[in-house]
Write a structure and sequence with these properties.
The chain has 1 helix and 3 strands. With 105 residues, it is α+β, with helices and mostly antiparallel strands. The chain folds into 2 domains: 35 residues, no CATH class; 51 residues. Strands 1-3-2 form a 3-stranded antiparallel beta sheet. The model has no long low-confidence stretch (mean pLDDT 85).
């Protein structure tokens, strides 16, 4: 904020080297006399940073969920398909070797 003499009354330097900015400048008048000037600069960098963080978290969550689904599916397939087939193969090998006693155990 600048007064009519050009003296800076208020200045905030929170935005440094922003890539995307929106700025507006307006003269302040009272009774047709120039009494100061206001310059407002807004940056989209903070919003972009927050969006990037959100995107990273979303990607990590999706990767984690997919990983849990694959691990769970593998464990269920092993328990309900692979183990019974391995047991059946073991029993059939015993029968093929001529061991007919207790073939179902």
């Amino acid at each position: 904020m600048i007064n009519h003499r050009g003296k800076v009354l208020f200045e905030y330097q929170g935005v440094k080297k922003a890539r995307q900015t929106i700025s507006r400048q307006k003269n302040i008048t009272y009774d047709q006399r120039f009494i100061g000037q206001v310059l407002i600069v807004l940056s989209l960098d903070q919003d972009q940073k927050e969006l990037n963080q959100f995107l990273l978290i979303a990607i990590l969550v999706v990767v984690g969920v997919v990983l849990v689904i694959f691990i769970t599916t593998g464990a269920l397939l092993r328990h309900f398909i692979s183990q019974p087939i391995a047991s059946l193969q073991y029993r059939m090998d015993r029968v093929a070797q001529g061991n007919f006693t207790n073939a179902s155990a």
